[in-house]
Automatic annotation (TrEMBL):
Family: Belongs to the peptidase A25 family.
Functional summary from the UniProt entry: Initiates the rapid degradation of small, acid-soluble proteins during spore germination.
Keywords, alphabetical: Hydrolase, Protease, Zymogen
Heme keyword on record: no
Annotated protein name in UniProt: Germination protease
Length: 342
């Protein structure tokens, strides 16, 4: 099968050069590449991936030079308050880490921009967060941030990057923070990951609707982007569901006749559990033993001729975004309070 990069993602650890599905040997090699340095760690339930890309690495993985940090809880649910609390704790920690060299005082102006279309729920995390922060800020004696949600180019007829540039020139902030929805190429990452980076952002990049860059090079001030993946392409979702089905059936076949098989109370088999997929080859054919990436490639090629390349979002995405809007707002207020007091 001819290898074609159909991958649409905004997450650094899902890009062609830093894929999550790499073998341990590949990951170890990446850690020692001159252009890309990657560190993986865990804080409570939060899985943390920190990727630093220099000029050489920018050429290797086609990602802009800078620091990228992803925080993820694979088992997070929309009602998991304990998990959201742990995510918030990690986010505040890495906001400090990302801005450790930036001096911010009580007089510093920080502009927070919430990108996205408020009328389209999966794209509304930016405006939702600005609304939550407005509510919080109205209860304070002194405002901590300058908050604005500019809408999208389709609503305003004006390029969002140009609008923010003009706003920055007028306000002259010490820091611009951009909040936006992202795309992922892994269904398990939907609404369970936060990515922050000092490289800025290309609005719409993950869904193929590229707009002008919003970055330090464009605005002339440091830019931090915070994103939540809320959409995934339909072929990815189909391939992941089939992968789970194959693994579940193979696991059942392996357990047949074993005493442990009688203890099973569910048909579900975790995706990362090691199973022998050759067990299902007589049922489904050779493609059942293909690597997950090859099956994704097959579905992407089949669906690429479809007039509408569908993007999928969780049905409870409105509740997810309400949770994240509160989490991001609270994290930013706690971070700035701690930053200004040091």
């Amino acid at each position: 099968m001819k290898k074609v990069d159909w991958n649409r993602t905004d997450l650094i650890d899902e890009t062609a050069g830093v894929l999550l599905q790499q073998t341990p040997a590949d990951k170890e090699k990446l850690k020692h590449e001159r252009g890309v340095h990657m560190e993986e760690s865990q804080q409570n339930r939060v899985k943390i991936t920190k990727v630093e890309v220099n000029a050489a690495g920018q050429e290797q993985i086609s990602k802009k030079q800078g620091v990228y940090i992803t925080l993820s809880i694979p088992t997070l649910t929309s009602e998991d308050q304990h998990g959201f609390s742990q995510l918030q704790e990690s986010l505040i920690h890495y906001l400090h880490d990302l801005h450790k060299d930036l001096k911010i005082t009580a007089e510093s102006k920080i502009l927070v921009i919430g990108l996205g279309n408020k009328t389209i729920t999966p794209d509304a995390i930016g405006p939702y967060t600005i609304d939550a922060m407005h509510k919080k800020q109205s209860e304070l004696q002194e405002p901590k941030f300058i908050l604005y949600a500019p809408g999208v180019t389709g609503q305003t007829g004006f390029e969002t990057s140009d609008y923010i540039h003009a706003l920055t020139e007028k306000i002259k902030p010490s820091l611009v923070i951009i909040i936006d929805a992202l795309a992922t190429s892994g269904s398990a990452r939907l609404c369970r990951t936060i990515q922050l980076t000092d490289t800025g952002i290309h609005p719409g990049g993950g869904v193929g609707n590229h707009r002008k860059e919003i970055s330090k090079e464009v605005l002339g001030v440091p830019v931090t982007a915070i994103g939540i993946p809320t959409v995934v392409e339909a072929p990815i979702l189909i391939a992941d569901a089939i992968d789970v089905a194959f693994r579940s059936i193979a696991a059942k076949i392996q357990e047949k006749g074993k005493p442990s098989g009688k203890l099973s109370v569910t048909n579900w088999t975790p995706v990362n559990e090691e199973v022998d997929l050759s067990k299902v080859e007589p049922i489904f054919g050779q493609w059942a033993t293909w690597p997950t990436e090859d099956r994704r490639q097959l579905f992407e090629e089949v669906f690429s001729t479809h007039p509408e390349r569908l993007m999928v979002t969780p049905k409870e995405v409105d509740f997810w975004l309400s949770q994240y809007a509160f989490l991001l707002g609270e994290s930013l207020f706690k971070w700035i309070e701690q930053k200004q007091s040091t």
